[in-house]
Specification:
Elements (H helix, E strand, L loop, with lengths): L2 E7 L4 E6 L10 E6 L6 H7 L9 H24 L7 E5 L4 E5 L6 H6 L11 H21 L1 H8 L12 H19 L1 H9 L10 H14 L4 H15 L10 E3 L8 E3 L5 E3 L6 E3 L2 H8 L9 H16 L9 H24 L3 H10 L11 H20 L6 H11 L5 H24 L9 H13 L3
Antiparallel strand pairs: 1-2, 2-3, 3-5, 4-5, 6-9, 7-8
Helix pairs in contact: 2-5, 4-10, 4-11, 6-8, 6-9, 6-12, 9-16, 11-12, 12-14, 12-16, 15-16
Length: 463
């Protein structure tokens, strides 16, 4: 293999820059290679442990092969429609589950967030970069919306279900797994339960066994996790219908994050990662663009700017009437809650090596408060990215809830529909708060009775 530099390394794939003589197809003697079998690289064992080079069964390999084929097909389909939108695919090695891309000679948006003091970037700020991402996303979504049938024809040509929307059942299992991971890694009550039962080191148990114990613990706490998660998912899908019979579906990159976007001085943004591409509500991409890690820790003044950025995006979508923009902004908070819940689960499961790499990639300090890096990291990310948002929008009591009410109830028409949206949003926040409180992850700050009484008063207010 030629000399390489690791650009990104995850549990599911690795991205490398290959350099040296004999590199075929790349300008300046370099190309980008992405592999869906990262276990073959020694760096994978260094981050994920010596035992991580596991054997992949037939079913697992088929899933990986399908994801690999989807990303290659998406990149080729988008390049056919607009070559400047994505890096050019140079070669595909289907047996090795690898493909090569041209090396884009521009910095990523993340580079700009981390280095805004360089001369040619002196006019940029976090705000300007965020608005640039929103503008790029608006153009990307509109382009893909216009050519959706062509994209689907190309991507799903040999595999009809390759590019599709996640089913409600799949979403349910995904969020149930998130909840179990969060409780397992963050609940002192669960740790006490584990010790009382005299259970062995969880690292020596199969993952399904550990999850089964998490469910038994929650049952002991009188929490029906399946019912809670089922209601949470159903309410979220209802909100994403925006009063229609079917929820909105567009083509999504799946991860419209700063590290996946390249800044082109000509004004166009190049998108370099589609391993999570799927169909779904546009909120998915909008959240990763606006509420990215460089816009944290949470600050209520910055929150106001970010919601204005969200509003500016919706105002550019021809299919959304201007008088429905306020409802879209509020509805996005539901999707944001779900994404923060996902991220909390991801952060909770990261190893010390993964945390150090993550902090280094984001330009954050790896020196936390004490010697327990994992505990400190989980506490920091929980406080900065999750609890601060949950407290701010706490129904009837958080300062942000008053902002939400003002956004919906004191402007525009369709008051009854907007009250219904408020109630759905309230219930969704409450479901997550209850899971975390009963699971011993957070303390319930306000009783549900008081919160419900406050909400009833809102419903009873006159026009």
């Amino acid at each position: 293999m030629k000399d390489y530099q690791i650009i990104s390394l995850g549990r599911d794939n690795i991205v490398l820059r290959l350099e040296g003589k004999g590199i075929s197809g790349g300008e300046n003697g370099s190309i980008i290679r992405k592999s869906y079998l990262p276990q073959q690289y020694p760096e994978y064992q260094q981050v994920y442990g010596q035992n991580s080079s596991f054997r992949i069964n037939v079913r697992g390999r088929n899933v990986i092969r399908e994801r690999f084929g989807r990303e290659v097909a998406v990149l080729e389909a988008l390049a056919d429609l607009k070559p400047s939108l994505v890096p050019r695919v140079l070669a595909v090695y289907r047996e090795r589950l690898e493909f090569d891309l041209e090396d884009v000679p521009y910095p990523t948006i993340r580079d700009l967030y981390l280095d805004t003091d360089r001369d040619y970037l002196s006019t940029y700020s976090r705000d300007a970069l965020t608005l640039q991402m929103v503008d790029a996303l608006s153009k990307f979504h509109q382009h893909c919306y216009t050519h959706l049938s062509e994209i689907l024809d190309k991507v799903n040509n040999n595999s009809p279900s390759r590019l599709r929307e996640e089913t409600e059942e799949e979403e349910f299992f995904r969020f149930r797994n998130y909840a179990e991971a969060i409780v397992f890694n963050n609940s002192s009550d669960f740790q006490s339960y584990w010790q009382e039962k005299g259970l062995p080191n969880p690292n020596k148990l199969h993952n399904t066994t550990v999850r089964r114990h998490v469910r038994r613990f929650l049952e002991k706490q009188h929490l029906d996790l399946e019912k809670r998660i089922g209601h949470f998912v159903a309410e979220g899908r209802k909100i994403n219908c925006y009063g229609q019979s079917k929820r909105e579906t567009v083509f999504l990159s799946g991860d419209f994050s700063p590290q996946n976007l390249f800044y082109n001085p000509n004004g166009e943004t190049i998108i370099g990662d589609f391993d999570k591409a799927h169909l779904g509500p546009r909120d998915v991409d909008l959240i990763t663009a606006v509420f990215n890690i460089h816009n944290y820790p949470f600050d209520k003044n910055r929150e106001s700017f970010l919601l204005d950025a969200v509003r500016s995006y919706y105002l550019t979508v021809p299919e959304i009437p201007p008088d429905q923009v306020a409802e879209r902004v509020v509805a996005l908070l539901s999707s944001r809650l779900a994404d923060n819940f996902r991220l909390l689960a991801v952060y909770s499961q990261m190893s010390s090596a993964e945390i150090r790499k993550f902090l280094g990639d984001q330009g954050l300090s790896t020196e936390l408060e004490n010697g327990d890096l994992r505990a400190d990291f989980r506490r920091k990310m929980f406080t900065d990215r999750f609890k601060a948002v949950l407290d701010y929008y706490r129904c009837g009591f958080g300062e942000g809830w008053a902002v939400v009410e003002e956004e919906l109830l004191y402007s525009g028409t369709r008051r009854s529909e907007r009250l219904g949206l408020l109630q759905q949003l309230r219930e969704r926040f409450q479901q997550i708060e209850n899971i975390l409180a009963v699971g011993g992850v957070i303390k319930a700050a306000v009783s549900n009775t008081l919160r419900s009484n406050r909400f009833r008063r809102v419903l009873a207010e006159p026009y």
